[in-house]
Design goal:
Blueprint lengths: L2 E4 L5 E4 L2 E2 L5 H11 L6 E2 H9 L7 H14 L4 E4 L2 E4 L7 H14 L2 H12 L13 H27 L7 H10 L4 H13 L3 H19 L5 H11 L31 H12 L6 E6 L6 H11 L8 E5 L12 H11 L11 H12 L5 E7 L2 H5 L8 E6 L4 H7 L2 E4 L5 H12 L1 H6 L1 H11 L3 H11 L5 H11 L13 H10 L3 H12 L7 H8 L3 H13 L4 E2 L5 E2 L2 H11 L5 H22 L23 H24 L3 H18 L2 H18 L2 H17 L3 H18 L2 H18 L2 H15 L5 H17 L3 H17 L3 H17 L3 H18 L2 H17 L3 H17 L3 H14 L1
Parallel strand pairs: 7-10, 7-11, 8-9, 9-10
Antiparallel strand pairs: 1-2, 2-3, 4-6, 5-6, 12-13
Helix pairs in contact: 1-2, 1-3, 4-5, 5-6, 6-8, 6-11, 7-8, 8-9, 8-10, 13-14, 17-19, 17-20, 19-21, 20-22, 22-26, 23-25, 23-26, 24-25, 24-27, 27-28, 27-29, 28-29, 29-30, 30-31, 31-32, 31-33, 32-33, 33-34, 33-35, 34-35, 35-36, 35-37, 36-37, 37-38, 37-39, 38-39, 39-40, 40-41
């Protein structure tokens, strides 16, 4: 008998053309809960949650069984499948699925046909969906369906507008804007319909009212598309045909490749489509949750690639590593910084404070149609700062149900379950071919059952079956290892069984590299690092990595670095217990240290090198040619270097800890990464103390002091610097003593004691003159000159700075040259030589710009404006101060920025 079920109104069913009594509300809810997931198994646990909520009664399973029996007696076909039930009817038999099928056809059709199809789809609605049902699941599903309907209504309106209609839509849209007053898509349609109806004045009045309401209620202006449409109406544009999109000047395209093959997930894809359809002008967040290996990222990427045209302003992607086996998720601050770079933010104007960076990110994507994919999140806190403010769409994947994201940010919760048997079969067919599947039907059926519908497990098995081995042999192996833990939704204890078989199929070199990759510190690894880890030539390691990638055990990202799914990595770590990994990790450490040592010297040629152990014969460091190459290498390896510090701490290798801190020192300075600088040098200081190495302790105390000063902790800074000075004096480390005096010079200037600063500067200079290093002597000369100028000793100050400038230029130290030009400008200004001051300041600003030193550049720019003002050039001074105020704000230097505003006000 034919069965038809209606969900788009009161929940009813007709069997054989006659309406049947579906019984009490809970029994009707069972039918509805199965009907929304048509022909897909819904587990008993999930079904109970849908019917009773988070705390079902003790006899829920028995009661569900009773409800199912009664529905079957009515003629409804309900199959028992893998721990749950599935409703078995044709898609057309459920009005919701008929509705979605018609909408899908419309999106592939021309406008005339699309209008008819969408009209037919909307005609299926008979009122509020899931009528007569209560409970959290029904309420949430009802709200999603309402939004889905609104999206389709808007789609139909767009089609009708493209067909030239307008006046006939006014009445319909006037009711819709009352129901959805802040929906900018609906508003734009209403404005255009009014305009086409000859009611331009009414359209402009509605825009003014919407603008005022948005400002009052949301604190925002209408988006760019609505603003542009308003302008065209205002100007009487006769060519108005549809909405106008704005595009970003920099369009990021960060999505990894779409998964292939991709099967099933039709319901989830429809849910994501519905969320996007109702987006309007507000941010839409969909949180995809499920167990590891369930296919969350696959779903997100497949949907994203399928909807690329909906996001003309770009796509951002980050793996947050919330469930990384090394316990080091990516911080939201690091992810925000990556997004800022992808969006083309000027590095000179990126603020230091993480909260300010997050605010800048939201500003850059405001009113843009950007997709943000946040993969593998640990919790809501990791995600919150990565959420745009308006207009964008966000996909979040996590093993946890992100309750805070759902309740606090109105995220659409999308739980992801295992693949149904037909979908699992389709995946294997795509990978192995229809002939292989047809040749061993019993083995295929058992393979699917043993894998429990987990996409990752199915893909690994398919990869190993591709060599022609009989599927029955795979079944025997899998039966031996078992996947029983999949029944309760926790794959952690059973997916390793699949990995065990995969591992056994590897050659010895492949298996060895696979295990070593598991213990390598950091989230990923480059080819050169993997070669060092393995102690093999890069060309051989590249081939092995390609083979592991083909076996679905490693993945290569767009930057050419290799990583593992976290569950696979856990298994690799277990296999590494059978190996002596000490030598491999020592090789990788040597690779990091020797390459980093060379890079650090390129970033600051006058730094004193440190002694490293000889490079092993089978390790080849990266040959860095200049500071640009050094920065690029540090950028790629930074997370791994920080992880290497943690690993060295864990195994008690104190020498490596402080050596790694040394290699990272100038990179952290160049990138302005003050907090990591402080953390790493803090570890290095403790390590140096355990080593009882005075030289290492001096260096660590000095850099911990500098790092504390950079994060505005002056007392801690002074304490560490004086400890460094005392230890250097006691051990006769003259160069360290001089460097520490130099650091104290600037610390005392920060404290406002110029005389104490000058004393330390002269002490530094006196020592450096005995050491024979012109670059160090020049730095000390400039420091002495600066302090003397602040004390009014201008002739002495100029003499020191001119000597410093000569040495800097003779030895091509451009950093020092810029610093000294600034000092000379300061001296000229104080002595009334404002033309000379402008010349020196201008040269310093230009050189700082070439070096990317925006922190010093803005200080000099501020002083340049002072000299320009003194020369009676107010326009030039105003320009310089306005630029300085902007840069101060970007660097979170509020006091300096406010002082500049006072100077601008005084300028008039």
């Amino acid at each position: 008998m034919e069965v038809r079920i209606a969900l788009l109104g009161e929940v009813v069913a007709h069997v054989g053309g006659q309406r049947v009594d579906l019984g009490p509300a809970k029994q009707r809810c069972v039918l509805a809960a199965l009907a929304v997931d048509l022909d897909r198994a819904v587990s008993v646990t999930r079904l109970a949650e849908r019917v009773w909520g988070a705390r079902p009664p003790l006899r829920a399973r028995d009661t569900l069984s009773s409800y199912v029996s009664r529905l079957r007696r009515l003629g409804v076909v309900l199959d028992r499948r893998s721990g749950g039930y599935a409703l078995v009817v044709e898609d057309d038999a459920v009005d919701l699925h008929r509705f979605r099928a018609l909408c899908a056809q419309a999106r592939r059709a021309g406008d005339d046909r699309a209008a008819a199809l969408l009209t037919e789809a909307l005609g299926l609605w008979r009122g509020d969906p899931l009528g007569g049902l209560d409970g959290d699941w029904a309420a949430g599903e009802r709200d999603r369906l309402r939004q889905e309907r609104l999206g389709v209504e808007s789609e139909l309106t767009d089609v009708r507008l493209r067909l030239g209609q307008g006046a006939g839509l006014v009445a319909e849209l006037s009711a819709r804007v009352v129901e959805h007053p802040l929906d900018e898509r609906v508003a734009a349609q209403y404005l255009l319909a009014l305009y086409r109806a000859g009611r331009a004045a009414d359209a402009l009045e509605h825009y003014r009212g919407l603008h005022a309401r948005l400002v009052d209620e949301l604190g925002t202006d209408p988006g760019p598309a609505l603003r542009e449409l308003h302008g065209r109406i205002l100007n009487g544009d006769p060519a108005l045909t549809g909405p106008v999109r704005a595009t970003l000047a920099v369009t990021p395209r960060q999505l990894p490749a779409a998964p292939a093959p991709f099967v099933g997930r039709h319901h989830e894809l429809d849910r994501l489509d519905a969320a996007l359809a109702q987006s309007g002008g507000t941010v839409v967040i969909s949180a995809i949750a499920g167990a590891g290996g369930i296919g969350k990222t696959w779903l997100a990427l497949h949907w994203a690639h399928r909807n690329l045209d909906r996001f003309p302003d770009g796509q951002l992607f980050v793996d947050l590593r919330g469930f990384s086996p090394d316990g080091t998720p990516i911080t939201s601050a690091a992810a925000v910084r990556g997004f800022l770079d992808a969006l083309g933010a000027d590095p000179a104007k990126i603020p230091v404070d993480p909260h300010a960076q997050a605010a800048l990110f939201r500003s850059l994507v405001a009113d843009k149609r950007v997709l943000v994919v946040l993969d593998n999140a640990a919790d809501t806190g990791q995600v919150a700062d990565l959420l745009p403010g308006t207009s964008c769409t966000v996909l979040v994947t996590s093993r946890n149900r992100l309750t805070g994201l759902i309740t606090g940010h109105s995220a659409q919760h999308l739980p992801l379950d295992t693949l149904a048997d037909p979908e699992a079969r389709a995946l294997l067919t795509d990978r192995l071919g229809a002939d292989r599947i047809a040749a061993e039907p019993a083995a295929v059926t058992e393979l699917i059952a043993l894998c429990g519908g987990f996409p990752l497990a199915l893909c690994i098995i398919a990869g190993h079956a591709a060599d022609g081995r009989p599927l029955a042999a795979l079944v025997a192996d899998l039966r031996e290892f078992g996947l029983v833990a999949l029944d309760d939704g926790d794959p952690a204890a059973s997916l390793p069984a699949v990995f065990s078989w995969s591992y056994r199929a590897l050659t010895e070199p492949q298996a060895r590299l696979f295990a070593l990759l598991g213990v390598a510190p950091g989230p990923d690894i480059g080819l050169a690092g993997a070669a060092a880890l393995a102690g093999l030539p890069p060309v051989r390691v590249r081939a092995l990595l390609r083979e592991l990638e083909q076996a679905s055990l490693v993945a290569q990202d767009a930057a050419g670095r290799y990583g593992m799914h976290d569950l696979i990595r856990r298994f690799a770590v277990d296999q590494a217990e059978q190996l002596d990994t000490g030598a491999a990790l020592r090789r990788l450490t040597a690779f990091h240290l020797h390459t980093g040592h060379a890079g650090n010297l390129l970033l600051h040629p006058y730094v004193t090198p440190i002694d490293l152990d000889p490079l092993p014969d089978d390790v080849r460091p990266v040959a860095l040619t200049d500071d640009t190459a050094a920065l690029a290498w540090f950028d790629a390896e930074h997370a791994c270097l920080l992880a290497a510090v943690d690993a060295a701490l864990e195994r008690g290798d104190d020498l490596v800890v402080w050596q790694l801190a040394w290699t990272l020192n100038n990179y952290h300075f160049r990138r302005g990464d003050r907090h990591n600088q402080l953390a790493v040098w803090g570890h290095a200081l403790a390590a140096a103390q355990r080593l009882d190495d005075p030289a290492a302790q001096i260096l660590a105390h000095r850099n911990v002091g500098r790092a504390n000063a950079d994060v505005d902790r002056p007392e801690e800074a002074m304490d560490h610097l004086y400890q460094a000075l005392e230890l250097a004096g006691r051990t006769g480390a003259r160069a360290d003593e001089a460097h520490t005096h130099h650091a104290l010079t600037w610390s005392w200037i920060q404290r406002g004691d110029d005389q104490r600063a000058l004393e330390h500067g002269e002490a530094s200079l006196a020592i450096h003159r005995t050491l024979g290093n012109p670059a160090w002597e020049a730095d000390a000369l400039n420091a002495v000159g600066w302090c003397a100028a602040r004390l009014g000793r201008h002739d002495y100050a100029r003499e020191q700075c001119r000597a410093a400038l000569d040495l800097h230029r003779r030895h091509q130290d451009r950093d020092g040259e810029a610093d000294t030009l600034d000092s000379l400008g300061f001296i000229d200004h104080q002595t009334g030589n404002h033309e000379d001051a402008v010349e020196h300041y201008t040269a310093a600003v230009a050189l700082y710009g070439e070096l990317g030193n925006t922190y010093q550049a803005v200080n000099t720019l501020d002083r340049l404006a002072e000299s320009l003002s003194a020369l009676g050039r107010p326009d030039a001074a105003r320009d310089a101060w306005q630029e300085a105020e902007t840069l101060y704000r970007a660097q979170q230097r509020g006091e300096e920025a406010d002082e500049v505003l006072r100077k601008l006000a005084a300028l008039g």
